[in-house]
Amino acid sequence: MSLKYDLDKFIPRKEQENCLEFIKKVTSTSPDFKFFLLNLPVGSGKSHLALMIADWYQKNVNSKAKFDIITNSKVLQNQYTNTYGSINDLKGKENYRCEKYDASCQQGGEFNRLNKSNCEFCPHSYARDQFLFGKISLTNFYLYILYQLYKPDAIEARGANVLIVDECQDFEDVMSDFISIKITDTLIKKYKFSNSEEISKKLKGVKSIEEYVDFLKDFKVDVETTYGSIQNALGSLERTPISDKRNNKLGKIFGSQNPDLKLMQMLVDLDQLKSKIEVFLKEWREDPNNWVMETQYNSKTKQNEISLEPIWAFNYLDKYVFSKCDMVFLMSGTILNKEMFCKLNGLDPSKSVYYSIPSPFPVKNRPIYYIPVGKMSYDKKEETFKDYVPMINKLLKKYEDKKGIIHTNSFELASWISRDIKNPRLVYHDSSNKDEVLEKHFINQNPTVLVSPSMDTGISFDGDKARFQIIAKVPYPSLASQKNKMRKQNYPEWYAYKTVSGLIQAYGRIIRSETDSGDTIIIDASFGDVLRYSSSFIPSWVQSSIKKINLPNLAN
């Protein structure tokens, strides 16, 4: 399907036309600008604007240009591809099915490699080729960064000139997570290393970053050795296209009557783990002062888990991504401040231009009701939650025939709500079933209410999917994180900026068009501190929607 066909589907909104006119004017008068920071609230039509930019660029700058559009989730990928046929979409191999081996394409590819065979048609290979050779290609942040770090030759061969980053407020965080590394006792046991006990003992003895780095150097050898052993075991077995159900020695070892799939997945995982360790060691050698060691308690495994994380990721964004592009368009409703965004993402301010517009939606359709029940700060949260219970029950009653969301910002607060508020409308998810629970909420005819710490960005609750939302905890970055502590210490304004960005992202979930409407209720009294100390980051169009309601005046 052609780009023209996709563009002709919709009449451009004035917000899209005005933004494109701005881009045209800047490029005609100041051609040295490389980075366009487009602060576009919900309703601006960022996805269609991305195609308008591609069309303009091809016609006026470079007719042979190729474009990469990347976004922060598969949900948004699907929104693009369900609307536009001219975009070449790529997801990870695990999202495609190999019919030959009745497995994922990730596992099927390993089977073929060991069997020295090929599939007649591979859905992932087809999608990858379309992505690499297409004019306009789309993928998610994670997969794009994976290609940049581990398959740079493929990206270089693609030769995309222009990068368009949708929901760019999350890009730096994803790069930081991607570069981070965490080895756990559970992971060590999963791969059944011949010296698992020795490895676990070494890991438990790690007390510093330097000791962790030494551990990883040795662990990389263990990974390579185990990879070779599994590869040899698989190579010695003859297998049919669809794995048989032998109860052989390997099956007994791995607790399965069909061990091949588990072994193949282990090979894939070990290969990725090896690559991840190599990238970390390389980046640590180049800048050892940019790393912190995090220790977190995992309540499921009942173990402390140690990770190494970069304090800032902007150097990696420039090295692996931005330096390879002729022009970069960064789109979000929460860029908010040019200087801050440039600093966090490693952009040269002299080559960056900022464009910002207010929300196109009527303020009466998007009210924010601030009801300060109590502060959900660390030392007051348990006492405050006692007052939350009657308030949340009251709000559920007020919106009893409406779907909604309760943003908790933590699984802990979600679990407290589950424990103390017994309302059958409330729906919960864990870290493994978020997409499934979300889809059930969408299709359920009853007025369900999602309780979630992680649905405050990138998801559209348009229309009746949510007519109200409760922000139960201001999304302050956790200072239990050493990385966040160092960020706040080195750059105090980052903390306020990140908090406001999170609030505005949540605010934008339920109002998705000019005719849409919904109420946002903030019950965490910490929002008063945000208004008092961080208002410089809050756009006027957001401030104009806030209505404070004191508890004594709250209608029953």
Characterization of the model:
With 556 residues, the chain is an alpha/beta fold. Helix content is 47%, strand content 16%. The protein has 23 helices and 19 strands. It has a 7-stranded parallel sheet, with helices on both faces. A hairpin with a 4-residue loop joins strand 4 and strand 5. The termini are far apart. Residues 242-257 have low confidence and may be disordered.
Write the layout of secondary structure elements.
Elements: H1 3-8, H2 14-29, E1 35-39, H3 46-60, E2 67-71, H4 74-83, E3 88-89, E4 97-98, E5 103-104, H5 105-115, H6 123-133, E6 136-140, H7 141-150, H8 152-158, E7 162-166, H9 171-179, E8 181-183, H10 185-190, H11 196-204, H12 209-235, H13 249-254, H14 259-286, E9 291-298, E10 303-310, H15 314-320, E11 327-332, H16 338-345, E12 352-356, E13 368-374, H17 381-398, E14 404-407, H18 411-420, E15 426-428, H19 434-443, E16 449-452, E17 468-471, H20 482-490, H21 493-507, E18 519-524, H22 527-533, H23 540-543, E19 546-548
Parallel strand pairs: 1-11, 1-12, 2-6, 2-7, 3-6, 7-11, 13-18, 13-19, 14-16, 14-17, 15-16, 17-18
Antiparallel strand pairs: 4-5, 8-10, 9-10
